[in-house]
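tokens incoming
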């Protein structure tokens, strides 16, 4: 039996509470993970994690090492403490990056400099050159980088990917996606960082469906246009609270993406999300339609136990749930858990089976090529789209084109397409 790996989670917020820590707790009791540490900006979120009653019942007796200590004054902010937590780790363990989008790059690079594997919540970084830098440094060191695009592990997405690539749908030409997160996000720590200069709903959650369309089809985006609707958080800070984007692909296909922080707290769902893709075939059309906000399960509780404190709920049994199992407490199930587990298991596998740099690099290349776990090498188009989206939304929706080649980049202006007929129809010049 190989040794379990030590895990340090950098970030103690919502995603750590809702998915990351319980998933890693379960992997600890199955022997894949050893000691767990969680580092946050200050002590209150760590205190909340330590006192989480659901964790106590699901994972009795399990705990984590907090950075800072739980008795640290709650107003004391320690923004660089993660460096100390990472430096204290033995080499070739795992750092989980669960920070706001614009802080990912610094934490990921700090982990790599200390010879640590990484699991990062999406998007990896906000600039393509940073993604390339991360990819190259990790590969040189034989370190694995997994990006938590969990929709790749949804069975619906895996079925669609297989059938699309077998030609059963035809070629994607037109689609729309939606992901509206709950209103109460505005009252969370989002109001401290989700400001106009740092992020927007398209980048934060729209990236899931941008990645998913590329995951299913393999088509490259070539143009992005995003407009935002601004508003103020309860603390008075201004941010893009809504965003609508359009992505054009290399074959001329179009995807419209609507995002926001505004699904009603009194609503029956935990959010609203869906994807529809229309495809052209020989003398007929195909369609992929995922109603992700409603998966055929509804509950009505005696009290407000739902995601937003409501009685009636559309229950998603597929993303993440704690359920009874044959062991102690409860176990996490769903594609959210499977996505986290895939990267942590891969890190454990590399450390258990690879004794040389060449062997580690061979495994990394194999995972890159398979394209199920998102890595910097197989999801780099996402960074190009996110960079283009930020450029567009800060210029009030002006189109930003993605230019591929030896040194991919983004710039304002309309894109080219690979199809001369499509190019002519849209007044574009065909790609050469």
């Amino acid at each position: 039996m190989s040794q379990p790996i030590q895990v340090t989670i950098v970030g103690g917020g919502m995603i750590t509470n809702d998915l990351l820590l319980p998933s890693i707790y379960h992997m600890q009791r199955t022997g894949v993970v050893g000691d767990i540490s969680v580092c946050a900006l200050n002590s209150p979120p760590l205190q909340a994690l330590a006192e989480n009653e659901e964790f106590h019942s699901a994972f009795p007796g399990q705990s984590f090492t907090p950075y800072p200590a739980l008795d640290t004054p709650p107003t004391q902010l320690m923004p660089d403490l993660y460096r100390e937590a990472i430096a204290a780790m033995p080499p070739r363990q795992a750092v989980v990056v669960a920070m706001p989008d614009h802080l990912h790059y610094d934490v990921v690079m700090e982990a790599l400099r200390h010879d640590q594997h990484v699991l990062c919540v999406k998007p990896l970084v906000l600039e393509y050159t940073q993604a390339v830098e991360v990819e190259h440094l990790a590969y040189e060191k034989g370190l694995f980088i997994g990006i938590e695009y969990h929709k790749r592990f949804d069975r619906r997405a895996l079925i669609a990917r297989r059938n699309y690539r077998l030609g059963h749908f035809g070629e994607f030409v037109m689609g729309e996606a939606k992901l509206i997160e709950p209103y109460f996000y505005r009252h969370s720590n989002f109001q401290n960082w989700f400001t106009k200069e740092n992020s927007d709903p398209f980048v934060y959650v729209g990236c899931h469906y941008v990645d998913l369309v590329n995951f299913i089809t393999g088509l490259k985006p070539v143009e992005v246009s995003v407009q935002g609707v601004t508003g103020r958080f309860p603390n008075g800070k201004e941010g893009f609270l809504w965003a609508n984007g359009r992505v054009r692909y290399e074959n001329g296909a179009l995807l419209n993406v609507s995002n926001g922080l505004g699904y009603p707290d009194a609503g029956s769902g935990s959010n609203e999300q869906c994807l529809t893709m229309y495809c052209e075939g020989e003398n007929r059309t195909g369609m992929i339609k995922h109603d992700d906000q409603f998966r055929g399960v509804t509950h009505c509780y005696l009290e407000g136990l739902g995601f937003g404190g409501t009685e009636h709920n559309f229950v998603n049994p597929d993303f993440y749930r704690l359920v009874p199992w044959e062991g102690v407490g409860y176990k996490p199930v769903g594609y959210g858990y499977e996505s986290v587990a895939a990267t942590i298991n891969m890190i454990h596998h590399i450390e258990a089976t690879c004794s040389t740099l060449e062997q580690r690099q061979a495994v990394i290349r194999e995972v890159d090529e398979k394209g199920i776990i998102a890595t910097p090498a197989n999801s780099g188009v996402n960074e190009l789209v996110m960079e283009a989206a930020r450029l567009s939304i800060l210029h009030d929706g002006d189109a930003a084109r993605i230019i591929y080649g030896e040194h991919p980049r983004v710039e304002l202006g309309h894109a080219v397409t690979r199809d001369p007929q499509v190019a002519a129809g849209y007044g574009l010049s065909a790609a050469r």
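note: The first strand starts at residue 5 and ends at 10.
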